[in-house]
Design goal:
Blueprint lengths: L6 E2 L2 E7 L9 H8 L1 H26 L12 E7 L15 E6 L4 E6 L4 H11 L11 E4 L6 H5 L2 H6 L8 E9 L15 H31 L2 E3 L4 E2 L3 E9 H10 L3 E6 L3 E2 L15 E2 L7 E6 L19 E2 L17 H9 L11 E2 L3 E6 L6 E2 L4 H11 L5 E4 L2 E2 L10 H13 L2 E5 L13 H6 L25 E6 L9 E3 L24 E4 L4 E3 L5 E2 L8 E2 L9 E2 L5 H18 L5 H10 L1 E2 L10 H7 L3 E2 L1 H5 L5 E10 L4 E7 L12 E10 L10 H4 L2 E7 L6 H8 E4 L2 E2 L4 H6 L7 E2 L6 E5 L5 E9 L6 E10 L8 E12 L6 H13 L1
Parallel strand pairs: 1-31, 13-16, 14-17, 14-19, 15-17, 19-21, 21-22, 22-24, 37-38
Antiparallel strand pairs: 2-32, 2-35, 3-5, 3-6, 4-5, 7-10, 7-11, 8-10, 9-10, 12-18, 12-20, 23-25, 25-26, 27-28, 29-30, 31-41, 32-40, 33-39, 33-41, 34-40, 35-36
Length: 822
């Protein structure tokens, strides 16, 4: 058994948390209440105009050769009080289905009854009758339909919107909303269970039938102008697919189809290509993995399974090609392959030349081929492909996806690819590790590294350009996204490395992710690039490239240092996950996510002085296998996994040995805390706290605050009993100097950890400031899920003495063993 294992600690108390909420008063809403007549007339004028415009549109559609539409379903764009978004405020009572939540309270909707319900509520509001009060929260209804392209189209389609040719065929991805959530499964222990269960089943049947009807209606609309070219993917609150449609149909889809919330071009998806083929060879004896070793799914270009360095890790009957018409699972990519290199980086994360013979492989590799011989994904919708792969490989828990779009991820709605990955991670308790994506060395459109340098945008400043943002699907909320850092600095007479050791690799795309999420989550060594001292020639150098296994199907050696990319940083993290799976084979995937981030550390000087720029480039830093999987005399880690609901709080506590907090001592103590969780998602929503069914955050006790006081502050109700605390006393207590903003201000401006589903923070304090116990609370917050389902999470806390040989592991372990026995 490992001498310094991570230790479980236990939840001490749970209850209803004291969540901070702002005042309900809003001057616009109150003004609408005072001026009922004016507000009601304004809204009714807008609905009347929208109905007139819609009827005019319907009357000329047939003669203009446009698809038929339902006269009672009218698109609407409105603004409500932003504080009501993601609360119990339900637009269905107004006959409106939400198609998409936008910023600042704006909502794309569709009236399902020709504004009958809305106008009825407006009239009740005008007459100050019961049932109309919430009309005051309707701030504005926008005229016309010209707002739709701005809110529905991708940036590229917006740029060409005015020049769309009605006779040209466009290949697009379309997202269609369906705002009818699954109902809550009734509690079998409550009265009337049988009747409630039957009603629940009927609701499911009705919902499924209506969902299929909407798909059929959408298919009829598209078939009027083209055809659907992929499977339709069900994401519960929406569905998506790829279509081929004329420009005439595109215009009609965007301007008039009521339920569309996103239209974008189809992404180009590929792996990175090798630049050279120089290498050396090594002779080692390779031993197959332990019998119960985990199997990591490599979703890539296939693998050269008979390569002597890899073959012992392959279970051939598990290999599969997902390329239509091509059953081969070999890596046919020229110049050494791509998937073969990724698989080799999992098995030999530090290079083959570093291992001793005989060498036992750390895990098995499952070969799941999706890229063709040109290293591209061409014939399958990515969201569909992810669902198919997970359905076929339900005995595999971890998947390495070193495949990205060639373009940066969009920042409005979660992409169908990333949202599907999120849905699968939450439902199947699996983990995706995804590369952050690569900035090309040169680019015909002017977005390559050389292009930036020639424009005077030098490294690392060009990384802040919008094109250098992480690539789809790396913005996935629950996946671990991996960027790359340089593993060495390099200089010779003609070239020098772009950046030094532990600087962000010049090709590595950076964050933040969508809605301010911390992305990449972590970084690893994926290589670097060099630049000539004269002429600004950017190239791959063997010295700056990781040592990787190559496919020899097209000739060349079996090992090479001829390619770089975040593609090869990601499998090094997959190797660490394989080691974690050996330690925690039955734990929820959130523990693996949390431990990965807990064991990461920003390179100096950012560890002690992080900035928004450093977080955007490195995420939480470079993971250490030692810190991720175990401890030492100077470091101890506690963890727990659990489930929590919205408006519930869980408190955990760690006892600190008295000798460690002696006033005479001046040790630097590092406290690291990571919370990781997953939840159900809704793709039609924006912002993390709307995208998720419920969301979590964590908070800590203050300096000198003991368990009892912290408990009463965090939990306003415990087992039905209301608690109180002295607000003035608590406000006077100093807070720990957490680095990243959470519920209290951190040192890093512009980054808030609560926007992410892996939330790490750390503080460095003097040992004499340590109290007798340190307390932490996990708090559940309401999202869109009215059924208030459970959210799985992990909490990890580490305490480490910095720059000292003082031994703390055993003392803290024993102190908390005694505490948990009491």
């Amino acid at each position: 058994m490992e001498k310094f294992p991570h230790l479980q600690f236990f939840q001490k108390v749970s209850g209803k948390p004291r969540l901070n909420g702002g005042p309900n008063y809003n001057p616009i809403t109150e003004g609408n209440k005072r001026n009922r007549g004016r507000h009601s007339r304004n809204l009714l004028n807008k609905t009347t105009q929208l109905k007139t415009d819609w009827n005019n549109e319907l009357s000329v559609r047939q003669q203009n050769g446009l698809a038929p539409l339902d006269a009672d379903i009218i698109p609407i764009f409105l603004k409500v009080n932003p504080k009501l978004v993601n609360t119990d405020f339900d637009l269905k009572q107004f006959g409106i289905e939400i198609i998409s939540e936008e910023d600042n309270g704006y909502i794309i909707g569709a009236s399902l009854d020709g504004f009958f319900s809305l106008e009825e509520k407006i009239n009740k509001f005008f007459n100050d009758k019961r049932g109309g009060g919430q009309i005051a929260e309707f701030w504005e209804i926008i005229d016309g339909n010209q707002w739709k392209p701005e809110h529905i189209l991708s940036d590229y389609l917006k740029s060409i919107w005015q020049s769309v040719d009605e006779n040209t065929t466009y290949r697009l991805e379309v997202g269609v909303a369906f705002d009818k959530p699954l109902s809550k499964v009734p509690d079998q222990y409550k009265r009337g269970y049988a009747l409630k269960l039957e009603k629940h089943r009927q609701n499911l049947i009705e919902r499924d039938n209506r969902f299929l009807e909407r798909q059929d209606e959408f298919e009829d609309f598209i078939n009027y102008y083209g055809n659907i070219t992929s499977e339709i993917i069900d994401l519960e609150d929406s569905f998506c697919c790829e279509v081929e449609i004329t420009g005439k149909g595109l215009k009609d889809l965007v301007l008039n189809y009521p339920f569309v919330f996103e239209v974008s071009e189809v992404d180009e998806i590929e792996g990175v290509q090798a630049e050279s083929e120089e290498t050396e060879s090594f002779e080692i004896e390779v031993i197959e993995p332990e019998e119960n070793a985990p199997e990591i799914g490599v979703i890539d270009s296939g693998i050269m399974e008979r390569n002597k360095y890899i073959s012992s890790a392959i279970i051939s009957e598990n290999s599969k090609s997902y390329i239509r018409g091509d059953v081969s699972t070999a890596d046919h990519v020229k110049s050494g392959g791509h998937g073969t290199r990724v698989a080799g980086a999992i098995l030999y994360p530090y290079g083959i030349s570093t291992v001793s013979s005989p060498y036992q492989l750390p895990c098995y590799i499952r070969n799941l081929r999706i890229l063709n011989q040109d290293n591209k994904l061409t014939d399958k919708f990515p969201a569909q492909l992810m669902q198919e792969i997970i359905t076929d490989n339900q005995d595999c828990r971890v998947f390495n996806l070193s495949v990205n779009s060639c373009l940066p991820a969009r920042i409005k709605h979660m992409s169908s690819w990333a949202a599907t990955i999120d849905k699968l991670i939450n439902e199947k308790d699996i983990l995706f590790l995804i590369s952050a994506g690569n900035i090309p060395i040169s680019d015909k459109k002017g977005f390559g590294i050389i292009n930036y340098i020639k424009e005077g945008k030098n490294y690392p400043d060009y990384l802040n350009e919008p094109f250098c943002r992480i690539a789809n699907p790396a913005q996935s909320s629950f996946a671990i996204t991996v960027g790359s850092v340089n593993h060495i600095s390099f200089n010779d007479e003609d070239f020098e490395s772009i950046g030094n050791k532990n600087d962000i690799s010049p090709f590595s795309r950076i964050g933040t992710g969508i809605w301010g999420m911390i992305k990449p989550d972590i970084v690893e060594y994926g290589g670097g690039l060099s630049i000539s001292r004269v002429g600004s020639v950017v190239s791959v150098k063997n010295e700056l490239s990781p040592e990787l296994v190559r496919s020899t199907l097209h000739g060349g050696p079996a090992i090479g240092t001829d390619i770089v990319g975040t593609s090869f940083a990601t499998p090094k993290v997959s190797y660490i996950v394989a080691q974690l799976l050996k330690l925690y084979p039955e734990e929820n995937i959130n523990l693996l996510r949390g431990l990965l981030v807990q064991g990461a550390r920003l390179p100096e000087p950012f560890f002690e002085n992080p900035s928004a720029i450093s977080i955007k480039r490195f995420g939480y830093g470079i993971p250490s296998l030692e810190r991720v999987t175990k401890n030492n005399d100077q470091r101890i880690t506690f963890y727990n996994t659990g489930n929590i609901r919205a408006e519930e709080g869980h408190i955990y506590s760690l006892k600190i040995p008295e000798f460690l907090s002696s006033p005479a001592e001046e040790y630097d103590v590092l406290i690291e805390v990571t919370v990781s969780y997953t939840a159900k998602v809704r793709r039609t929503r924006q912002k993390t706290k709307s995208y998720l069914s419920s969301w979590l955050d964590w908070t800590s006790s203050k300096v000198g605050e003991l368990f009892g006081g912290f408990k009463d502050y965090v939990l306003k109700e415990i087992e039905g009993k209301v608690t109180t605390y002295d607000k003035e006393v608590r406000n006077a207590m100093p807070s720990w100097n957490w680095k990243i903003k959470g519920d209290m201000r951190g040192e890093v401006d512009g980054i808030n950890r609560t926007n992410s589903t892996v939330q790490k923070d750390w503080a460095i304090i003097k040992s004499h400031e340590l109290p007798e116990d340190i307390n932490f609370a996990i708090r559940g917050h309401k999202g869109w899920d009215k059924s208030n389902g459970e959210i799985p999470y992990s909490l990890i806390v580490s305490i480490e003495i910095l720059n000292s040989s003082l031994e703390i592991y055993e003392a803290i372990r024993i102190e908390n063993e005694i505490e948990n026995l009491v």
